[in-house]
Structure formats: structure tokens, C-alpha cells
Amino acid sequence: MIKKMRKRTLKLVKLEVLSRRLSPNHPNRKHVEADLAMMEAGFKGEKALDYFLELITDKEINVFHDLRLPITNTKHYFQIDTLIVTPFFLAVVEVKNIRGNIYFDHLADQIIRTLKGEQEAFQDPVNQAGRQAAHLEKLLEHKQFRKVPIKHLACFTNSISVITFSNKYPEKAKSKVIRPRNLLEKLEHFKSLYPQRILAKSDLKKISSLLLKNHSDNETDILAQYGILQHDIVTGVQCQSCFSFPMQRRYGGWGCLNCQGFQNGSHLQALNDYSFLFKNSISNKEARLFLHLPSALTAMRVLKSMHLPSEGKGSTYRYILPS
Ligand SMILES: [Zn+2]
To answer: What are the residue ranges spanned by the domains of the chain?
Structure first.
């Protein structure tokens, strides 16, 4: 049973907004686009694993996607792509969607990807998953949860990538590298290692609420993270047909100066973008500037039409944007 669905993470959503709104010549644009492409590929790869996870029929097996949990006694967090909770053991799965030839280098705790003659290094995902398993073990211990074996796996979802290992790469670690189609047999194998049931029905419930309660989305300030200033962001309403900026307010809707299209609700996306990049509330003046509206009265009409909750009074009056 899927207890926590996989969806685009907040960071991925924010990066997508940023890539649409970052001024075209900004020096960090390439960095933003590369990170966005990597996260999109990651998300697609995780989706490829879902097909096999959906084949699990045992109702006592629970699956959690994209958990972000606190590292005990620190202010930091660790992230798990997929966690499989069974009555016998837990399995942490780090999912990688990497194209090209992948070489596991035992010396440097890294994998080296060769694609079109270019080499790039990534963290060794087996060790990465191992560290997540260790953090999870500590967290459960800290929360006084029953001790349960935690296994870890690195799953490579790109079916045409070629994986090789250095001669000295440990056999034990090698066995943790899988393809999505191997997942179910791996789980069977783990079950044969731990045939004794450890988690009762009530424990399964307890761990489920423990995980969901301690999970928190990554609220990073995406602009600060990429060294981007407010004035580097393109303002205005974006045309939903030709994606150009800015649209012009006309007859209670929006007209595109580029494709001449007319749309009614395009300001909704713009305000969504505002909320992801800046703040989850907006004043009349901020809305007027961001949406390129001609007057305070028009801004008020647009905002009032959304029936948003508000806070403050007079000059501090702000509309709370939907999250
Ligand atoms: Zn247009």
C-alpha cells in the first residue's frame, strides 16, 4: 500500500518556476537548468520504479516516497527516495536515473558516468542509501521504536545505462545495486534472511504515523540558493499559449502582445510563481507591480476575484496566496 505518494518535490516545483522566470542572460541560468534537468530525470526514474512497487499485493507492506526526515540531534535532514516497510524488515531504496556508462569506483566513494565522451562523478548511491539507513535507524531508536533490520538498495532505472564495477568493489555492496525488475525478488531474499515477524499490526501503524509526522518538505529559499536577486526575476503574467511575458490586462482578462491570444485566468499561475519564489502572501502594491496592472483598483479587483483569505489592516493588508 502506498502511504506517501510520489509527487514533484517542492524544490523541483520551485526550480521549474525559477527556470521560467529567471532573466535569460543571468549567469546562473545554466546551473538552474542543469539542476532542473537532473531533478526531472530523477523524478522520471522514480516513476519507472513505481510500476514494480504497484505489483506488491501484500497489504501489510507500506511504501513511502520522498521522505525528508530529521537527522537526530542536528538541524539537518536526510532524504529517502523510497522506503519499503514490511513486518519483517525495512528497505531504503535510492533511485538513480543516469544515462550512459556507469562505473563504480571503490576507492573514491563515487560512480563515474561516461556519456558522449564526457565524464562526470556522482556519490556512490549504495553508500548514500547506507547512510540514509543509518540515519533512519538512529531516528527510530531516538523515538524509542522497536529495533528492526534496515536494508538498503540502489536502483538504476535507466534501462540502457551500462553498469560496471572496479575489480575491488565489494561483492556485498555489488549485490545492493539493482534494476527495478529485480526489486521484488530482492524483497523476497530479504524476507528469507529475516523470516521472523518483528512488527505487529500496531507497530506498522505506529511507524507509519512516526514517518509522516516527522517528514517535512524542503522550504529552501530558492533565490538565495542560486544567488539570484529579486530584480533578476521576470515579472508580469505569462502567456499560457506562447509563454511570452508580459500579458496585458484587458476586458477582465489577459491579452498576449506576442501571439494576440486572450486568456482569463493567467494571473493565477503568476501569483503561484510569486508565492514559490518570494512570499506566500501579497499586498495590493506588490500584486500591481508583479502582474503589471495599471492601478490599485484593478489590482484589488483581480485579488478580490480570487476570494483569498487575508491578514493585517489598512497599509499592512495582505492576501494569503494558495499553497
Ligand atoms: Zn502568447
So the answer is: 2-214, 235-320
